[in-house]
Fold this protein.
Amino acid sequence: MAWSIGRRVIHLVLVILIVTFATMMLVDRVPGGLAHAILGDTATQEQIDTLNHKLKLDKSYAARYTGWLGDVATGDFGTSPRTNRPVLDTIRARLPVTIELVVLTELLAFMLAIPIGMYTAHREGKRLDRLWSLISSALIAVPSFVLALVLVYFFAVRWHVFPVNRFRPISKGLFDNLRSVALPVVTLAVAEVAVYSRVLRADAVTTMRQDYMLAARSRGLSPARLMFRHALRPSSLSLVTLGALSVGRLIGGTVVVETIFGLPGLGSLMIDSVLNSDLVVVQGIVLFVALVYVGLNLILDVTYGSLDPRVRSATA
Amino acid sequence: MALSNDLLLDEPPRANDIGTAVSNLAAPDRRRVKRHAPVLVWVAAAWLVLLVLCAIFADFLPIKGYARPAGPLRQAPGWHSVSLLGTDAIGRSQLSRVIYGARQSLTIAVGAVSIGLALGGLLGLLGGYFRGRVDALIALFTDSVLAVPPLLMIVAVTAFLERTMLTITMALALLAVPTYVRVARAHTLTLARREFVEAARALGASRRRIIFKELLPNVALPLISYVFLITASVIVAEGTLSFLGLGLPPPRPTWGAMIKDGRNYLSKSPAIIAVPAAALTVTVMALNIVGDHARLRYEFGRAR
Amino acid sequence: MSELALLDVTDLSVLFPTPRGVVRAVDGISFSMRPGESLGIVGESGSGKSMLARSIMGITPSAAVIGGTVRLNGADLRAMSPRQLRKCWGSQISMVFQDPMTSLNPVVRIGRNITEVLRTHGVADRRDAKRRARELLTEVRIPDPAARLRAYPHELSGGMRQRIGIALAIACRPQLLIADEPTTALDVTVQRQIMDLLAQLRAETGMAMIIITHDLGLVSGRTDRVAVMYGGKIVETGPTATLFNATRHPYTAALLASIPRLEKEPHVPIPVIPGLPRSVIDPVGCRFASRCLRAQPKCLTDEPVLEGAEPEHLVACWYPVGTPEGDAAAKRNVPSGQPATRVGV
């Protein structure tokens, strides 16, 4: 067990190294040079040289890379030449909004997907199941920004239920905060619900065919009890796994909704930085998100066993 | 270990591959496949054919140009409007912009998917055949691509490079590669153990011969069956990119950019957004419908 | 039968429509049981016995088409609404399943499983339920019940799991317990313990029992009556002793002959019944004809009716064992040793 964890850790460390190296290579490919891109066409050669030196771009690959790795290890993701703030600070400032979006999305997605998934498994093949199959296919296919705009049109523009572009942090009132993130959360959650419910349904259908479900049924337990107290837990492994994997994905996936709804999160920071050519920040965000994603996967792998007591005692 | 949350796959789950095992389950129900395609698939296919034809022969169609104003500003769609679909904020024909936009999207998509297919398929094939260190290396590469969420990765790549059709296509190809690697590898693993490969080896065939003459033709069909689904993802990604202002620069129209430009008029003239949004959504849905069907029927060989 | 019948099954059938025809898993079975009686249903794999058990309970697969009536204490189970049926399950009629390794939910603790059944059927108080659960574990002779309540199924052996299964089934004191091959998946030594347990429970609670098995030896001395099934039909039924001593149906006789016995000579092959049971689609004539050593042409065309000289001992055969016509038929086939249906082939 320890050996396989060790192997995974090595694998993941290598992945991080590759990602960082690739970003470094990308930085070099910037047409005209990174410094030039950041400073713009009006920059003088002297300014470019100073920035190059500041960004250590005048050193060799090896020196730059090891230097950068060393910096990252100590928490220094670089400093934005534009704002002169450390990248990590900027990221940290914007992180709470994104985290709130992700957490609420996951909550909403689970709250909806679990009953839908279990129920469609219960009524497998019947009309409701097939209807949901069509609907969920449609929901998965709709691009998120289209969905967001549709929601904005109906709920913000025509019916004035939810605001747009007016994010209120929790400190200014929970209700306002929730109102301002409702539409973005729904946008993100819709696609997740469709997938989650399918995943759960697939596992649940298999579970329902097990002998122990028939046995439980033969003891007179109600369908609701059978579904949620007996079938749900053995069927939830894939769903929980997917939910955990999705957190990493969602962190980057909030880009669209943050932009549309004007939320000051990590995603909109990314876009703003790109549009401002603040590529140091972009680099930092990519690294940060990759680290989070990889770390989450590692945790998930390690805790895999605790979801199923059989696995727990097998590995104990 | 797989970091992917790619949801298009359907292959037997492997014990230590949580990500793919989980992704399988989001696939459409295999047992519902019938001999002949249902009506919906035909309708979807018809739409796609129509779209492709219009995109290819756009210059010969009796439509207005896409760059110059052709009618009153922000005209709503209707029987009496310019080209049935109305005009945008500057008075350009929506219909023309949609059609020329289709050309952009489809060109990029075809390019990206082809490259992804070629590269991903080859890598998967090699990884599945040689196993061991080669496979580990390829897995490392794939996982690295997947370590960054897709949209972020594309935004980052296009941020650093110039925004040309080539770079955008390459970035989107990167999106498609991991899926193809996974599919090709899975199928190669199964196929490599079959008798015809053993027979070829017994006859003294070189490894290269086995890979290209025996395995490749058999893996090709499943790979191609994924084309529609991957194209759908790519079109959505490209649309999102354009919508964020990070896609191809104007004046060529793209659906995403059309939607972006129309945002200011969401309350007064929602049609400006609605038309390209509908085109995009319908196309993506059609690709998904056809793609699901193609996958069900052809992923595991012609037997179906 | 009389008004005293606990279970009255009339013309019960379980049919599966398939592209190749209708599979008649259970084909027009009728029998009755008195309260406290124990009935053994014996048959090979494929004889339909498990499907019979499930159709009596009412938990058949959705693809099955059921016919006939099943009256428990006069009420037709087949006519009940799902809710009414759920009330009966566990409290009036319940089932013990074959494979103890798969019939317990692996993520549910034993205690919770039991208390859940109790609370579904009326025990409101949580502590009461827990106490009852412990008592139940003692009833099924499980040592250290308190500790077992907290355990998960995979921590217990097969024999213990089956005891749990029995405990779950009898928790609410049903009047009828159906045991579907309760010992098939267990070691031989454990098999006997389980059968003894079932007998003891029956003596203690007075519940009726149906024991379904492929092993005729299992029911000898343990059941009041036996019904032998073949091809979805009952071919012979009667009091256990009579069935064993005065066997009438050739299939029953063959089953008896194939039981390994200590008294027999070692190294003598067990007489096998040639052939395999056919999947019963559109059957004609006696189902057993193709494997019967005394089959005659009549057996291929006319289906025998379940009837008997003595009211309690019924047989469905044209040439039963121990009758003049039967013995003559057997002798006619002796030169070839083949069933008449195969003569000339």
